[in-house]
Amino acid sequence: MTSLSSFKSSAVSHDIQAGKLSHSVLLLSPDTFALDEFAKNMIMALMCEQDDKPCGVCEACRKVQHNNNVDVLYYPKENKVLNSAEIENLIDEVYSAPYESDRKVFVIKNANQIDQTQQNKLLKTLEEPPSKTYFILIATEDSNILQTIKSRCRIVRVPQLTESEILSVLKDNNVPDNIATLAFSYCDGSCSQALKYATNEHFAEIVALTENILSNFRKSWQMLDFASKLYSYNENFEEVLDVFLNICARAVAILCGSGKVDKIATEVAQSFSVDALVALNRGCLNLIEQRKRNCNFNSIVDEFLFMILEVRHKYPV
Questions:
Q1: What is the mean pLDDT of the chain?
Q2: pLDDT in tens, 175-225
Q3: 5, 171, 242, 312: most buried, per Cβ within 10 A?
Q4: What is the signed CA dihedral for 174, 175, 180, 184, rounded to 10 degrees?
Q5: What are the pLDDT digits (tens) for 51-107?
Q6: Distance between CA atoms of residues 43 and 307, nearest Å
Q7: Could you tell me if residue 34 is inside a domain?
């Protein structure tokens, strides 16, 4: 399993091995793949029948790997976010005895999206669960999680997967080597983002077009050509902006003397000032908000291209 060795070196693994793990743990990472992998390794370690936990091969570990351990319960079961009815079901399950082992594990996904009224219903259960009952809350960020919830949990910031681990995951998903390398270069260390890019059949085209815009779009007469190309990426415009922002961030890092040198970022760093790149970042974030509000797509594309020309003019190198 990906990142099993790195999990075994973690403080959480050591606490499980010593029988000292807190009964409530909040796992945090913007990378949903890394979150799920860490949580699965953690659950295996809690349920493992061997001394060196998790062994990955005993019956309990195999059941966790295949999501069929009856003493490991995942919530929400049907909806994206835990609701009142499922919280009541969860609390009932907490006070029922385990079926196959001497412990139960409750995994609550998207914890940061739970309504705060519903979070309050969990407080007492998280604070005083039955013996050998564990809660694993999983969230991409913690700003919406009540402080009273966080104070009852051990907070673990899940480390990113390594480059070799991410490339291994992509290989396991039958991604060609060239696409895997390209996806990794734009994923900012997020395996879930790398998978999203690598499994998008248009991603290589999106990267090529975005790099072309940053390198060559300088005159208003080019607007029509670039706009017509971008109009065809309505369903993938989020990826266009992601790639655009990624390149701009790498160029800023180079201008600030801290970035890893690569061809397109170096070229952009030579063509735009830091002020220009900051303005582009701000403008793209505004366009992302417009997409969320379902604004007219063609107008967003036009605004995107006008923004690039304006920034070049306003902040010359």
A1: 93
A2: 999 999 999 999 999 999 999 999 999 999 999 999 999 999 999 999 999
A3: 242
A4: -80
A5: 889 998 999 999 999 989 999 999 998 778 888 899 999 999 999 999 988 999 999
A6: 48
A7: yes
Spell out the residues 6+ positions from residue 293 whose beta carbon is closer than 8 angstroms to its own.
none
On whether the CB atoms of residues 39 and 107 are closer than 8 A, the answer is yes
Residues 83 and 214 reside in one and the same domain: no
Q: Establish if 190 belongs to a structural domain.
A: no
pLDDT at 259: 66
**Is 170 among the domain residues?**
no
Q: Are residues 31 and 144 in the same domain?
A: yes
Do the domain assignments include residue 195?
Answer: no
Q: Identify whether residues 126 and 37 lie together within a single domain.
A: yes
pLDDT of residue 167 exceeding 70, the answer is yes
pTM: 0.88
Cβ atoms of residues 240 and 204 within 8 Å: no
How many domains does the chain fold into? 2
Burial of 242 (0-12, 13-18, 19+ CB in 10 A): buried
pLDDT at residue 140 above 70? yes
Do 152 and 223 share a domain, yes or no?
no
Q: Which of 159, 188, 220 is the last residue of a domain?
A: 159
Across the beta sheet with 133-139, what order do the strands follow? Answer: 72-75, 104-108, 133-139, 24-28, 154-157
Q: Which domain holds residue 306?
A: 200-314
The residue type found at 83 is: N
State the sign of the Cα–Cα–Cα–Cα dihedral 244, 250, 256, 261: negative
Identify the pLDDT of residue 178. 95
Residue 107: which H helix or E strand, with range?
A: strand 104-108
